[in-house]
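User: For a reading group we're discussing how well predicted structures match intuition. Take SDR family oxidoreductase. Before you show the prediction, I'll give you the sequence so everyone sees exactly what went in.
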Amino acid sequence: MMLDGKIAVITGAGPGLGRTLAVLMAREGADVVVAARSAETLAAIAGQVEAEGRRALAVPTDISDPAQAARLAETAAGRFGRVDVLVNAAFPGSHRRDVLDMDDAHLERWRRAVETAAFGTLLACRHIAPHMVAAGMGSIVNITSMSSRGGYAGRSDYAAGKAAVHLLSHCLADELGPSGVRVNCVAPGWIASDVLDDWMRARAEAENTTFEAIRARDTAAMALRRIATEEDVARAVIWLASDQAAATTGATIDVNAGQYFT
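Assistant: Thanks. Here is the predicted 3D structure of SDR family oxidoreductase, as structure tokens, for the group to look at:
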């Protein structure tokens, strides 16, 4: 029970990694507040947390909106009296578009993506961290990416947004450390999912080969010869959130099965 009795807030709690985080944190003893834009998705995740025997609160939130971010913090602290852990995982999907091919609509999606990742993370920390500072303790874990330190064509929105969160985390670690609040990152690489499988199938068709050949080639470039799972990522988050990481701040844990070393 690494998080026994803790109150955790997860932003960007969607049906993938966010759901896995919420359920595993509940199994480790945390009561969980989930925030995202979809009320229906949040209600389902809250139900899974409660099925684990923990308390849950669903707060529909656009985390890039200052008023909604403030309301999330007030609602969470008002319900549970405090917040011990904040996990920032919000990020809209990337659109895979080269910069010179972007029209006005693509440029607006780029702005929105970076705003959700960077400004949204900033707002969540700005409004929730004061509750941790008042308590003299707390842990913030920001989900960045392997792409935060190495961009490639068509993904500038994703890379820029995650890179901003990466360095914001360093700044916050320095600012909040004297108050006993730790700030760290978990940087996933590829995560096993239907979306990743669909991308591999599309590449296989483009290269006139098989899905199995593409998957074998990709995993051969990973030291562990496998693709990380949502649970692999969630376990790293849970460790950083727990008291076992009491002397760790300003750090990044890479969870990419050895696809990229730092």
